[in-house]
Task: structure prediction
Amino acid sequence: MTLSDFIEANLTELIDDWTAYARRLSAEGSALNVDQLRNSVRDLLVRIAADMRETQTAAQQTAKSLGDRPPSESGFNETAHRHADDRLAQGFGINEVVAEYRAMRASVLRRWQGASQLDASSFQEMVRFNEAIDQMLAESVRQYAQRTERIRDLFGGVLAHDLRSPLGAILNSVEILLRDNGLSPLSVKAIAHVQHGAGRMKRMIDDLFLFTRARLGDTLPLEPTPQDMGHICQDAADEVRAAFPDAQIVVQLTGELDGNWDAGRISQLLVNLISNAVQHGSGKICVRATGFADRVTVAVSNTGRPIPAQLLPTLFDPLTRATRTQGRQGTTSGMGLGLYICRSIAVAHKGTIRAESTENGTIFTLQVPRFLISP
Result:
C-alpha cells in the first residue's frame, strides 16, 4: 500500500490523533469546535495525498524544494491558505500553526511505519510526503504572515487617519491663542512649545499615513502642476532653517528647472532629506538642483561620518535607521519612516532616489522626469 493510499484509508484515525493535539494547542476562547478541527485536517490530508499521486519529474522536484510550486487545479495552495486564514481568525499564533503540521507529519509516519512493511519504494513515498507537508506549511506560513502584515497596516492607517482630527484641533487652537495680545511672555513661550511639538506629531502621523497607504497597495496620490524645482528647493531649505536656525544650508541651481510635479510631495521629500543632513551631518549642507533635457536631479549632501556600507542596501526600507555617530543635533526623533516615504514619493513621480556615503560625505540624489503630465 502506498503512503497516499494509507492516508486516505486511515483518515479517521489520523484525524483523531491530530484533533486531540490541536485541541491542546487551541487558543483560549477559540470558537473552533471539534467538527471544524476535523474538517480542517481532513482537507489538508486529502490534498496532500492527491499531491503525492501527481506525476513529478526530477526538475519539478528540485523546483518544489526551492518553494517554486507551479499553479495546480488540485486546490493544494488554496487549502493551505484557507487553513492559515481560519487559524488567524481564531487567535492561533504562527508557532501553533507550525506545530499543527509537525504533529500531522509525526502522526502519519508513526502509524504508517507500524502498519506497513517498509522497503526501498517506501523511502520515495516518505520523500514525496515530506515535500507535500513542507510545501503546504510554507504556503500557510506565507499566507499567515501576509494577512498579519495587512492587519497591522490597516490598524496603522486607521490610527493615523483618526489622530489627524484631534491634532488638527490642537494646532488650530494654538494659532488662535497666539493671536491673543493679552498673553504673558511665559504663556506665549509655552504655547509655542505646544505648537512645535504638535507640528512634529503631525509630520510623524502624516508619514505613518503615507506608509500604510503604500504598504496596502494604494497609489500615493499626486497633484502635479507646473512648478519650478528651484523654488521648491528654496522653500524646503527655508522650512528647515526655521527649525534649525544654526544650520548652514546652501542652495545651488543649474539649468532649466521647470516641470510638472506635486510641489507638496517633493517639498516633503526634500525637507526630510535636508533635515536628516542637519541632524546627522556636520558642516555645510548643500542642496544642488540641476536641469537636463528630460529630467531634473536634486542632490542633498553633507559632511560627517559616513553611513556604514552594509546599511546602504536597506536604507530606504521602512522602520529601519542607519546607525551613525550623532551629528550636531543628536539623535533624531521619528518612526524610521522618513526615507521610505521619500522613496515612495520618488517612485510615484516615476523617478528614483539613491544614497552614496563615503569618508568625503553623504549624498542623497533624487531624479525625476521633467513632465508627468502634458505641458
